[in-house]
Amino acid sequence: MTIEELTTEVQKALEEIRPFLKSDGGDITLISIEDGKHVKVRLEGACTSCSVNQMTLRAGVETTIKKFAPQIETVVNIL
């Protein structure tokens, strides 16, 4: 998969999870994909101060991204 295709798949994953984040006053932005397997995102809005944002990142965001792009190994929130 090219980096362009990978970026498209990750964006599709973020579009799937975004309504859930927005319903709680948050959002998410793709920052970068490094080495074709490490994704950096920025949780925004209410998600920045939410006490369970790491759980959301792992259980929601990372799982959804891996569904669209199984080669992704890590998803990290950049502050």
Task: Give the DSSP E fraction (strand runs of 2 or more residues).
Answer: 25-35%
Strand arrangement within the widest β-sheet reads 1-2-3
Number of strands: 3
Percentage of residues assigned to helices: 40-55%
Please trace the helix and strand order, writing H or E for each element. Answer: HEEHE
Distance between the termini: 28 Å
Report the principal-axis shape. Answer: globular
Report Rg. Answer: 12 Å
- Total helical segments: 2
- What would you call the structural class? alpha+beta
Summed over residues and divided by their number, the pLDDT gives a mean of 89
Largest sheet geometry: 3 strands, mixed
Unreliable stretches (pLDDT < 50, length at least 5) are none
Structure report:
The chain has 79 residues and is an alpha+beta fold. The protein is built from 2 helices and 3 strands. The protein is globular. The model has no long low-confidence stretch (mean pLDDT 89).
